[in-house]
Structures are given as C-alpha cells and as structure tokens.
Fold:
Amino acid sequence: MIRYAGQTRALVAVDCIIFGFDGDNFKLLLIQRGFAPEKKKWSLMGGFVQVNESLDQAANRVLKQLTGLENVFMEQLHAFGDPFRDPAERTIAVAYVALIDIQKYEQQLSQEFHAKWFLLNDMPQLIFDHEKMVQMAKNRLKYKAAMHPILFELLPEKFTVPQLQTLYEGLYETEFDKRNFFRKVLSTGFLIKQDEKDKGNSRKGAFYYKIDKEQYNHKFEAFLNLIPKQEAMLI
Structure:
C-alpha cells in the first residue's frame, strides 16, 4: 500500500445533531458518553468513520444505531478541525443535522446510550465543541426554514396549523401573529385539509392537514416570505 511519507495521521468522526418535535416543543437528542474522556457526560451521538465508509454512510450508521431510523432527513453541516478539540487524540469531526418526528420514533431509541430529549433552551453542558455544533445547526436551520418547508420533516403525517406555528416559534424563539401565519401557510398551496379536527386544546378544535407531496417537492419557493426577514437573518 502506498502511503504519504512524513504525514501525521488523524482520526475522522461524525457527530449527529438530532432535532425533534413532540407536538409542543422543539428538542435536541443527547446521549451520555460511554467512554473516556468525558465519560457519562452529555454528548451528541457520534462515532469514528470506518476505513470502508464514506462520511454519509458513517452518519447514517450512527443515526440508525441510536434511533433505529433510516431514510430520514439528514445533511452535512460543517467540519470541526481545531487540533485541540478532543483531548485524547487529533480528531476531525464532521457534523450532520437530522430531523425526526419524536412521537413516531421515540420508542425506537437505543437504551444502550441513555438517550434523552432536551429542550433547546434547557440542554445540559456538552463535551468538547458540541455546543458550538448545536448553535451552528440551529442557525443553519433558521436560515433554511425561512426559505424551504424543511421543518415539515419534524411533523407527523397529520398535523394542525397551530402545531406548525409552535414548531416555528420554538426554532426562532419568538411569537408569530396567528392570522398572518395561517394565511401565509395556506397560500403555499401544499397543505391538504382533512375532515377531522384535533380538539385536545380547545372546544372548537383545529383541522388536521396533510402535506401534498408533489407540491412539497416542487414549491419550496412558496416559503420565502413565511418567516420575517429580520428573524431569518439571525444566523
């Protein structure tokens, strides 16, 4: 095997920033690290890239190992290469963002890693530079969610507009005018109104909606004005 002479070897890892929505709150999935350094402290789910894996394959393996999930929304965020980020050994970490519906998949979480969902504004101190990763992921998600209906990946098959508004307000940490939000969401043209209502939060109830998959895949631009510009640019 040919090797590059005189070069220092470095490990490559992937870390998964897993966001979820339980119908009321926007959350982050964390685990307790199972080995030193920082054993038993809270961490993102991660692992080292194997010699026969691409970065995407490694990230998907890590996500499946923790959640049992495959084929969920996940994309590469950023590479973190501070030479001192991991005190054990020179390690370059490539972060990925995944979006899942908590209510649908919570029972599939691996108990081996003591996984737990935390509110974004109430998460514990994380190891290494993981808090920096989470903040960058939040900022990227804010920017993308203002332009594309990406947060729909967090919703169940049937949802209400108030649930959708709660999801957006949780990410942007602000409140939106209900009438304007409702009008803008319906104007996108890719929500299909259902006959049944969710009456859990009020006597009148709120109609359920489903996503029109064809419109969802072809009308991303419809969300360009959903989020006020000043909120979208807080990245």
User: Anything to note?
Assistant: Confidence is low (pLDDT under 50) at residues 230-235.
